[in-house]
Design goal:
The protein has one helix and seven strands, in the order H-E-E-E-E-E-E-E. The protein is of the alpha+beta class and about 120 residues long. A four-stranded antiparallel β-sheet has the order 4-5-6-7, with no helix packed on it.
Length: about 120
């Protein structure tokens, strides 16, 4: 009688394992309804900001120019994914790939007088 009971368990065990495997796979694929959309996606790679060098600023009565990376640029002008927003006497604001950046002139080295 004990051998007969053991055989029944041996028949039921594969059925149980098969059912468990059949239902465990789809259950793991269920989505959490409270998770925000795009949460499982890999994070977007950060786009590096453009290397910009402000070399000169010209502010006149009728126009304003800034020399950026060796090229004269006017307010509103766009180049290489960058747009010049505002030119001030001492700085220039640009929009670089959706981010506002402020460019400053490099300070000139102090020269001491010799006698």
């Amino acid at each position: 009688m004990t051998q007969l009971t053991g055989l029944r368990h041996m028949r039921v065990l594969p059925l149980f394992v098969g059912c468990w495997l059949a239902f465990a796979g789809p259950a793991a694929a269920l989505q959490d309804p409270t998770r925000p959309p795009g949460f499982d996606e890999s994070p977007a790679q950060a786009v590096p900001m453009t290397d910009l060098a402000l070399q000169s600023i010209l502010v006149g009565t009728e126009r304003r120019l800034a020399v950026i990376n060796g090229e004269p640029r006017a307010e509103g002008q766009a180049f290489d994914g960058v747009r010049v927003r505002q030119i001030y006497r001492d700085r220039v604001e640009v929009l670089d790939r959706g981010r506002i950046r402020t460019l400053y002139l490099d300070e000139l080295p102090q020269v001491r007088r010799t006698q």
